[in-house]
Amino acid sequence: MNGPDGGAHPAFHIMAKPTGARCNLACAYCFFLKKEHLYPDSNFRMTDEVMEEYIRQTIEGHRVPHVTIAWQGGEPTLMGLEFFRRSVEVQKKYAKPKTHIENTFQTNGILLDDEWCRFFHDNNFLIGLSMDGPGELHDTCRRDRQDRGTFDRVLKAARLLQKHRVEFNILCTVNGINADHPLEVYRFFRDELSVEYIQFIPIVERENATGFQEGDTVTGRSVRPEQWGRFLVAIFDEWIENDVGRMFVLNFDAALAGWLGIAGTACIFAPTCGLGVALEHNGDVYSCDHFVEPDYLLGNILATPLIELVNSEKQRAFGTAKRDTLPRYCRECDFLAICNGECPKNRYVRTPDGEEGLNYLCEGYRIFFSHADRPMRMMADLLRQGRNADEVMPMLAAAKRGREKVPAKVGRNDPCPCGSGLKYKKCCGRMSR
Ligand code: SF4
Ligand code: SF4
Hints:
With 433 residues, the chain is α/β, with parallel strands linked by helices. It is built from 15 helices and twelve strands.
Protein backbone atom coordinates (compact mmCIF):
# COMPACT_ATOMS: atom_id res chain seq x y z
CA MET A 1 0.00 0.00 0.00
CA ASN A 2 1.09 3.57 -0.53
CA GLY A 3 1.54 6.33 1.98
CA PRO A 4 0.78 10.02 1.64
CA ASP A 5 3.58 10.53 -0.89
CA GLY A 6 2.94 7.36 -2.84
CA GLY A 7 5.68 5.36 -1.12
CA ALA A 8 5.05 1.97 0.45
CA HIS A 9 3.62 1.95 3.95
CA PRO A 10 3.37 -1.36 5.74
CA ALA A 11 0.96 -0.19 8.45
CA PHE A 12 -1.85 2.23 9.18
CA HIS A 13 -4.03 3.02 12.15
CA ILE A 14 -7.82 2.86 12.45
CA MET A 15 -9.80 4.24 15.32
CA ALA A 16 -13.06 2.33 15.47
CA LYS A 17 -16.10 3.98 17.01
CA PRO A 18 -18.49 1.11 17.71
CA THR A 19 -21.07 3.46 19.27
CA GLY A 20 -20.35 6.34 16.91
CA ALA A 21 -20.76 9.61 18.72
CA ARG A 22 -22.94 8.12 21.46
CA CYS A 23 -21.72 8.55 25.04
CA ASN A 24 -23.15 8.19 28.55
CA LEU A 25 -21.66 11.53 29.64
CA ALA A 26 -22.12 15.08 28.40
CA CYS A 27 -18.67 16.60 28.78
CA ALA A 28 -18.88 20.27 28.04
CA TYR A 29 -16.27 20.30 25.27
CA CYS A 30 -16.94 16.98 23.54
CA PHE A 31 -16.82 17.56 19.80
CA PHE A 32 -18.28 14.15 19.06
CA LEU A 33 -21.63 14.57 20.80
CA LYS A 34 -22.62 17.20 18.24
CA LYS A 35 -21.98 14.72 15.46
CA GLU A 36 -24.94 12.44 16.15
CA HIS A 37 -26.75 14.42 13.43
CA LEU A 38 -24.50 12.78 10.81
CA TYR A 39 -26.53 9.57 11.24
CA PRO A 40 -30.05 10.72 12.17
CA ASP A 41 -31.77 7.31 12.04
CA SER A 42 -29.00 5.21 13.48
CA ASN A 43 -29.04 3.17 16.67
CA PHE A 44 -25.28 3.82 16.89
CA ARG A 45 -24.27 0.20 17.39
CA MET A 46 -21.64 -1.49 15.27
CA THR A 47 -22.95 -4.75 13.87
CA ASP A 48 -20.92 -7.95 14.13
CA GLU A 49 -20.60 -7.85 10.34
CA VAL A 50 -18.84 -4.46 10.43
CA MET A 51 -16.74 -5.50 13.43
CA GLU A 52 -15.55 -8.64 11.66
CA GLU A 53 -14.72 -6.73 8.46
CA TYR A 54 -12.83 -4.11 10.47
CA ILE A 55 -10.71 -6.74 12.18
CA ARG A 56 -10.16 -8.93 9.13
CA GLN A 57 -9.21 -6.05 6.86
CA THR A 58 -6.97 -4.44 9.45
CA ILE A 59 -5.03 -7.64 10.08
CA GLU A 60 -4.80 -8.52 6.39
CA GLY A 61 -3.73 -4.96 5.47
CA HIS A 62 -0.70 -4.95 7.77
CA ARG A 63 2.72 -6.15 6.65
CA VAL A 64 4.33 -5.67 10.06
CA PRO A 65 4.25 -8.12 12.98
CA HIS A 66 2.35 -5.72 15.24
CA VAL A 67 -1.30 -4.80 14.65
CA THR A 68 -3.35 -2.45 16.79
CA ILE A 69 -7.11 -2.78 17.02
CA ALA A 70 -8.26 0.55 18.44
CA TRP A 71 -11.62 1.14 20.12
CA GLN A 72 -12.74 4.66 20.76
CA GLY A 73 -15.89 6.70 21.19
CA GLY A 74 -18.29 8.11 21.94
CA GLU A 75 -18.07 5.58 24.71
CA PRO A 76 -17.23 2.03 23.59
CA THR A 77 -18.32 0.35 26.85
CA LEU A 78 -21.93 1.13 25.81
CA MET A 79 -21.59 -1.79 23.36
CA GLY A 80 -21.49 -4.19 26.31
CA LEU A 81 -18.70 -6.60 27.19
CA GLU A 82 -19.99 -9.46 25.03
CA PHE A 83 -19.29 -7.45 21.85
CA PHE A 84 -15.62 -7.20 22.78
CA ARG A 85 -15.43 -10.87 23.80
CA ARG A 86 -16.66 -11.69 20.29
CA SER A 87 -14.15 -9.25 18.79
CA VAL A 88 -11.30 -11.12 20.49
CA GLU A 89 -12.55 -14.39 19.03
CA VAL A 90 -12.66 -12.77 15.57
CA GLN A 91 -9.08 -11.57 16.06
CA LYS A 92 -7.98 -15.13 16.84
CA LYS A 93 -9.76 -16.34 13.71
CA TYR A 94 -7.82 -13.97 11.41
CA ALA A 95 -4.49 -13.70 13.28
CA LYS A 96 -1.45 -14.43 11.12
CA PRO A 97 1.39 -16.50 12.56
CA LYS A 98 3.93 -14.44 14.52
CA THR A 99 1.67 -11.38 14.48
CA HIS A 100 1.05 -9.66 17.77
CA ILE A 101 -2.39 -8.06 18.04
CA GLU A 102 -2.91 -5.36 20.62
CA ASN A 103 -6.23 -3.79 21.56
CA THR A 104 -6.41 -0.20 22.74
CA PHE A 105 -9.57 1.06 24.37
CA GLN A 106 -10.45 4.65 25.22
CA THR A 107 -13.06 5.06 27.95
CA ASN A 108 -14.48 7.52 30.45
CA GLY A 109 -14.47 4.65 32.98
CA ILE A 110 -18.04 5.10 34.22
CA LEU A 111 -19.23 1.58 33.37
CA LEU A 112 -16.10 -0.31 34.33
CA ASP A 113 -16.46 -3.05 36.91
CA ASP A 114 -14.53 -6.16 37.97
CA GLU A 115 -15.74 -8.13 34.98
CA TRP A 116 -14.63 -5.52 32.44
CA CYS A 117 -11.25 -5.20 34.16
CA ARG A 118 -10.71 -8.97 34.31
CA PHE A 119 -11.46 -9.10 30.59
CA PHE A 120 -9.02 -6.24 29.85
CA HIS A 121 -6.31 -7.92 31.89
CA ASP A 122 -6.82 -11.39 30.43
CA ASN A 123 -6.74 -10.03 26.87
CA ASN A 124 -3.96 -7.46 27.32
CA PHE A 125 -6.06 -4.46 26.44
CA LEU A 126 -4.28 -1.13 26.85
CA ILE A 127 -6.76 1.35 28.32
CA GLY A 128 -6.86 5.11 27.91
CA LEU A 129 -8.79 6.60 30.82
CA SER A 130 -10.07 10.15 30.44
CA MET A 131 -9.45 12.25 33.52
CA ASP A 132 -8.81 15.98 33.79
CA GLY A 133 -7.05 16.20 37.15
CA PRO A 134 -8.13 16.16 40.81
CA GLY A 135 -11.80 16.41 41.91
CA GLU A 136 -12.94 19.94 41.21
CA LEU A 137 -10.79 20.41 38.13
CA HIS A 138 -12.05 17.16 36.63
CA ASP A 139 -15.67 17.91 37.46
CA THR A 140 -15.65 21.35 35.85
CA CYS A 141 -16.22 19.92 32.39
CA ARG A 142 -16.56 16.15 32.79
CA ARG A 143 -20.20 15.89 33.81
CA ASP A 144 -22.94 13.36 33.25
CA ARG A 145 -26.30 13.90 31.63
CA GLN A 146 -27.83 14.90 34.99
CA ASP A 147 -25.09 17.53 35.27
CA ARG A 148 -23.36 15.71 38.10
CA GLY A 149 -19.58 15.56 38.42
CA THR A 150 -17.97 12.23 37.55
CA PHE A 151 -14.67 12.39 39.41
CA ASP A 152 -15.54 9.82 42.11
CA ARG A 153 -16.71 7.30 39.54
CA VAL A 154 -13.65 7.76 37.33
CA LEU A 155 -11.33 7.49 40.32
CA LYS A 156 -13.06 4.23 41.24
CA ALA A 157 -12.48 2.99 37.68
CA ALA A 158 -8.76 3.84 37.95
CA ARG A 159 -8.50 1.91 41.20
CA LEU A 160 -10.28 -1.08 39.65
CA LEU A 161 -7.88 -1.06 36.70
CA GLN A 162 -4.97 -0.99 39.15
CA LYS A 163 -6.47 -3.77 41.25
CA HIS A 164 -6.69 -5.99 38.17
CA ARG A 165 -3.24 -4.92 36.93
CA VAL A 166 -4.64 -3.56 33.67
CA GLU A 167 -2.21 -1.34 31.80
CA PHE A 168 -3.66 2.14 31.40
CA ASN A 169 -2.75 5.68 30.39
CA ILE A 170 -4.37 8.90 31.47
CA LEU A 171 -5.73 11.15 28.76
CA CYS A 172 -6.10 14.56 30.30
CA THR A 173 -7.80 17.25 28.28
CA VAL A 174 -6.48 20.71 29.04
CA ASN A 175 -9.12 23.41 29.03
CA GLY A 176 -9.29 27.06 30.03
CA ILE A 177 -9.68 26.11 33.69
CA ASN A 178 -7.36 23.23 34.56
CA ALA A 179 -4.66 24.84 32.37
CA ASP A 180 -4.08 27.34 35.19
CA HIS A 181 -3.21 24.48 37.58
CA PRO A 182 -0.48 22.50 35.81
CA LEU A 183 1.38 21.23 38.85
CA GLU A 184 -1.79 20.40 40.74
CA VAL A 185 -2.89 18.29 37.77
CA TYR A 186 0.47 16.62 37.16
CA ARG A 187 1.20 15.88 40.84
CA PHE A 188 -2.27 14.44 41.30
CA PHE A 189 -1.65 11.90 38.55
CA ARG A 190 1.88 11.14 39.74
CA ASP A 191 1.52 11.19 43.52
CA GLU A 192 -2.10 10.35 44.25
CA LEU A 193 -3.20 8.25 41.30
CA SER A 194 0.29 6.71 40.89
CA VAL A 195 0.15 6.48 37.12
CA GLU A 196 3.21 6.65 34.88
CA TYR A 197 1.75 7.41 31.44
CA ILE A 198 -0.04 10.67 30.72
CA GLN A 199 -1.07 12.47 27.60
CA PHE A 200 -2.25 16.08 27.68
CA ILE A 201 -4.71 17.06 24.96
CA PRO A 202 -5.40 20.78 24.43
CA ILE A 203 -9.07 21.65 24.06
CA VAL A 204 -9.50 23.88 21.03
CA GLU A 205 -13.24 24.05 20.51
CA ARG A 206 -14.52 26.20 17.70
CA GLU A 207 -17.72 28.15 18.17
CA ASN A 208 -20.29 26.43 15.91
CA ALA A 209 -23.30 24.12 16.11
CA THR A 210 -21.98 21.27 13.98
CA GLY A 211 -18.85 20.10 15.77
CA PHE A 212 -17.08 20.35 12.39
CA GLN A 213 -13.79 22.15 11.79
CA GLU A 214 -15.28 25.49 10.86
CA GLY A 215 -15.48 28.98 12.34
CA ASP A 216 -12.61 31.08 13.61
CA THR A 217 -13.53 31.85 17.20
CA VAL A 218 -13.05 29.44 20.08
CA THR A 219 -15.29 28.87 23.09
CA GLY A 220 -14.32 30.17 26.53
CA ARG A 221 -13.71 26.58 27.63
CA SER A 222 -10.84 26.25 25.18
CA VAL A 223 -7.27 26.58 26.38
CA ARG A 224 -5.62 29.85 25.32
CA PRO A 225 -2.42 29.52 23.30
CA GLU A 226 -0.04 31.11 25.82
CA GLN A 227 -1.85 29.28 28.62
CA TRP A 228 -1.12 25.97 26.84
CA GLY A 229 2.54 26.96 26.56
CA ARG A 230 2.79 27.88 30.24
CA PHE A 231 1.01 24.66 31.22
CA LEU A 232 3.55 22.55 29.33
CA VAL A 233 6.50 24.57 30.64
CA ALA A 234 5.48 24.21 34.29
CA ILE A 235 5.05 20.45 34.01
CA PHE A 236 8.19 20.09 31.90
CA ASP A 237 10.27 21.83 34.60
CA GLU A 238 8.95 19.49 37.26
CA TRP A 239 9.47 16.46 35.02
CA ILE A 240 12.96 17.32 33.82
CA GLU A 241 14.12 17.88 37.39
CA ASN A 242 12.66 14.74 38.94
CA ASP A 243 10.83 12.35 36.69
CA VAL A 244 12.64 11.58 33.43
CA GLY A 245 12.53 7.81 32.92
CA ARG A 246 9.87 7.24 35.54
CA MET A 247 6.95 9.36 34.28
CA PHE A 248 6.08 9.22 30.59
CA VAL A 249 4.40 12.32 29.27
CA LEU A 250 3.53 11.64 25.66
CA ASN A 251 3.72 15.33 24.74
CA PHE A 252 7.37 15.46 25.86
CA ASP A 253 8.31 12.15 24.23
CA ALA A 254 6.72 13.26 20.97
CA ALA A 255 8.60 16.57 21.07
CA LEU A 256 11.89 14.84 21.96
CA ALA A 257 11.47 12.67 18.87
CA GLY A 258 11.60 15.90 16.87
CA TRP A 259 14.93 16.87 18.47
CA LEU A 260 16.15 13.39 17.54
CA GLY A 261 15.15 14.04 13.94
CA ILE A 262 12.31 11.52 13.91
CA ALA A 263 9.29 13.79 14.38
CA GLY A 264 6.05 11.95 13.95
CA THR A 265 5.84 9.45 16.81
CA ALA A 266 2.62 11.39 17.48
CA CYS A 267 0.67 12.36 14.38
CA ILE A 268 0.29 16.00 15.44
CA PHE A 269 4.04 16.56 14.99
CA ALA A 270 4.43 14.42 11.85
CA PRO A 271 5.17 16.21 8.56
CA THR A 272 2.08 14.69 6.88
CA CYS A 273 -1.20 13.09 7.94
CA GLY A 274 -3.18 10.31 6.36
CA LEU A 275 -2.28 7.05 8.08
CA GLY A 276 -4.78 7.29 10.93
CA VAL A 277 -8.38 6.98 9.75
CA ALA A 278 -11.62 6.84 11.74
CA LEU A 279 -14.15 4.04 11.33
CA GLU A 280 -17.75 4.84 12.17
CA HIS A 281 -20.17 2.27 13.63
CA ASN A 282 -21.73 1.54 10.20
CA GLY A 283 -18.42 0.96 8.39
CA ASP A 284 -17.93 4.49 7.04
CA VAL A 285 -14.30 5.57 7.00
CA TYR A 286 -13.19 9.19 7.45
CA SER A 287 -9.80 10.80 6.92
CA CYS A 288 -9.13 11.25 10.64
CA ASP A 289 -10.85 11.10 14.00
CA HIS A 290 -10.90 14.90 13.97
CA PHE A 291 -12.45 15.11 10.53
CA VAL A 292 -15.55 12.94 10.83
CA GLU A 293 -17.57 15.17 8.54
CA PRO A 294 -19.11 14.70 5.08
CA ASP A 295 -16.25 16.29 3.11
CA TYR A 296 -13.79 13.78 4.56
CA LEU A 297 -15.81 10.60 4.04
CA LEU A 298 -13.65 8.10 2.12
CA GLY A 299 -16.15 5.26 1.70
CA ASN A 300 -17.50 2.24 3.55
CA ILE A 301 -15.54 -0.93 4.32
CA LEU A 302 -18.53 -3.13 3.41
CA ALA A 303 -18.27 -1.82 -0.16
CA THR A 304 -14.59 -0.90 -0.62
CA PRO A 305 -11.58 -2.58 0.98
CA LEU A 306 -10.14 -0.53 3.81
CA ILE A 307 -6.69 -0.62 2.26
CA GLU A 308 -8.04 1.05 -0.89
CA LEU A 309 -9.66 3.77 1.16
CA VAL A 310 -6.48 4.47 3.13
CA ASN A 311 -4.55 4.49 -0.14
CA SER A 312 -7.02 6.59 -2.13
CA GLU A 313 -6.12 9.82 -3.92
CA LYS A 314 -8.45 11.67 -1.61
CA GLN A 315 -6.69 10.41 1.50
CA ARG A 316 -3.24 11.05 0.05
CA ALA A 317 -4.27 14.63 -0.71
CA PHE A 318 -5.54 14.98 2.86
CA GLY A 319 -2.20 13.71 4.14
CA THR A 320 0.12 15.90 2.09
CA ALA A 321 -2.02 19.03 2.59
CA LYS A 322 -0.61 19.21 6.11
CA ARG A 323 2.86 19.89 4.69
CA ASP A 324 1.85 21.74 1.53
CA THR A 325 -0.37 24.33 3.20
CA LEU A 326 2.11 25.50 5.83
CA PRO A 327 2.30 29.28 5.94
CA ARG A 328 5.69 30.93 5.45
CA TYR A 329 5.76 31.74 9.19
CA CYS A 330 5.94 27.98 9.89
CA ARG A 331 8.31 27.21 7.03
CA GLU A 332 10.78 29.71 8.47
CA CYS A 333 10.22 28.72 12.11
CA ASP A 334 13.20 27.42 14.14
CA PHE A 335 10.98 24.63 15.43
CA LEU A 336 9.47 23.48 12.14
CA ALA A 337 11.27 20.11 12.25
CA ILE A 338 9.76 19.44 15.68
CA CYS A 339 6.28 20.90 15.27
CA ASN A 340 5.46 20.68 11.55
CA GLY A 341 2.65 23.16 12.15
CA GLU A 342 0.90 20.71 14.56
CA CYS A 343 -2.57 19.40 13.74
CA PRO A 344 -4.37 20.92 10.72
CA LYS A 345 -7.63 21.01 12.67
CA ASN A 346 -6.17 23.91 14.68
CA ARG A 347 -4.83 25.86 11.71
CA TYR A 348 -7.26 28.68 11.21
CA VAL A 349 -5.62 31.85 12.51
CA ARG A 350 -3.47 34.33 10.62
CA THR A 351 0.27 34.78 10.92
CA PRO A 352 1.60 38.19 12.14
CA ASP A 353 1.93 39.25 8.49
CA GLY A 354 -1.66 38.19 7.70
CA GLU A 355 -1.22 34.82 5.96
CA GLU A 356 -3.92 32.26 6.66
CA GLY A 357 -3.37 28.80 8.07
CA LEU A 358 -1.38 29.33 11.25
CA ASN A 359 -2.04 27.02 14.16
CA TYR A 360 -4.18 28.53 16.92
CA LEU A 361 -1.77 27.03 19.49
CA CYS A 362 1.39 28.37 17.82
CA GLU A 363 2.27 30.89 20.51
CA GLY A 364 2.02 28.18 23.17
CA TYR A 365 4.22 25.80 21.24
CA ARG A 366 6.82 28.50 20.66
CA ILE A 367 6.89 29.21 24.40
CA PHE A 368 7.29 25.53 25.19
CA PHE A 369 9.81 24.62 22.46
CA SER A 370 12.05 27.62 23.28
CA HIS A 371 11.97 26.79 26.96
CA ALA A 372 12.65 23.07 26.49
CA ASP A 373 15.25 23.47 23.74
CA ARG A 374 18.46 23.00 25.78
CA PRO A 375 17.36 20.07 27.94
CA MET A 376 15.80 18.42 24.88
CA ARG A 377 19.07 18.79 22.97
CA MET A 378 20.94 17.27 25.90
CA MET A 379 18.58 14.30 26.06
CA ALA A 380 18.79 13.82 22.30
CA ASP A 381 22.63 13.82 22.57
CA LEU A 382 22.51 11.26 25.36
CA LEU A 383 20.21 8.99 23.40
CA ARG A 384 22.37 9.25 20.27
CA GLN A 385 25.33 8.08 22.38
CA GLY A 386 23.33 5.05 23.52
CA ARG A 387 22.93 6.51 27.00
CA ASN A 388 19.74 7.04 28.99
CA ALA A 389 17.75 10.24 28.77
CA ASP A 390 17.39 10.31 32.56
CA GLU A 391 21.10 11.16 32.86
CA VAL A 392 19.98 14.66 31.98
CA MET A 393 18.69 15.14 35.53
CA PRO A 394 22.06 15.03 37.37
CA MET A 395 23.63 16.99 34.52
CA LEU A 396 21.09 19.77 34.90
CA ALA A 397 21.37 19.68 38.68
CA ALA A 398 25.16 19.96 38.44
CA ALA A 399 24.83 22.78 35.94
CA LYS A 400 22.47 24.59 38.26
CA ARG A 401 24.79 24.15 41.24
CA GLY A 402 27.96 24.90 39.36
CA ARG A 403 26.83 27.69 37.10
CA GLU A 404 28.89 30.23 39.03
CA LYS A 405 31.50 27.71 40.16
CA VAL A 406 32.74 26.60 36.74
CA PRO A 407 36.23 28.08 36.44
CA ALA A 408 36.63 30.45 33.56
CA LYS A 409 39.49 28.34 32.20
CA VAL A 410 37.20 25.38 31.29
CA GLY A 411 37.25 25.40 27.50
CA ARG A 412 34.14 24.62 25.51
CA ASN A 413 35.78 21.45 24.15
CA ASP A 414 37.08 20.29 27.60
CA PRO A 415 35.34 17.50 29.52
CA CYS A 416 32.46 18.91 31.48
CA PRO A 417 33.31 19.43 35.19
CA CYS A 418 29.99 17.86 36.20
CA GLY A 419 31.46 14.45 35.33
CA SER A 420 28.97 13.56 32.62
CA GLY A 421 31.69 12.53 30.18
CA LEU A 422 30.38 14.99 27.59
CA LYS A 423 32.24 17.99 26.28
CA TYR A 424 31.53 21.11 28.33
CA LYS A 425 29.91 22.79 25.34
CA LYS A 426 27.50 19.84 24.90
CA CYS A 427 26.65 19.62 28.58
CA CYS A 428 26.61 22.27 31.30
CA GLY A 429 28.12 24.74 28.87
CA ARG A 430 24.79 24.75 27.12
CA MET A 431 23.11 25.78 30.30
CA SER A 432 25.53 28.57 31.14
CA ARG A 433 25.48 30.23 27.77
S1 SF4 B 1 -5.51 15.88 11.21
FE1 SF4 B 1 -4.51 16.10 13.23
S2 SF4 B 1 -5.17 14.34 14.44
FE2 SF4 B 1 -5.62 13.90 12.26
S3 SF4 B 1 -3.82 12.76 11.51
FE3 SF4 B 1 -3.48 14.92 11.07
S4 SF4 B 1 -2.32 15.71 12.83
FE4 SF4 B 1 -3.24 13.76 13.45
S1 SF4 C 1 5.76 26.65 16.47
FE1 SF4 C 1 4.23 27.87 15.35
S2 SF4 C 1 5.36 28.73 13.62
FE2 SF4 C 1 6.59 27.05 14.44
S3 SF4 C 1 6.01 25.28 13.15
FE3 SF4 C 1 4.74 25.25 15.04
S4 SF4 C 1 2.87 26.34 14.47
FE4 SF4 C 1 4.39 26.83 12.90
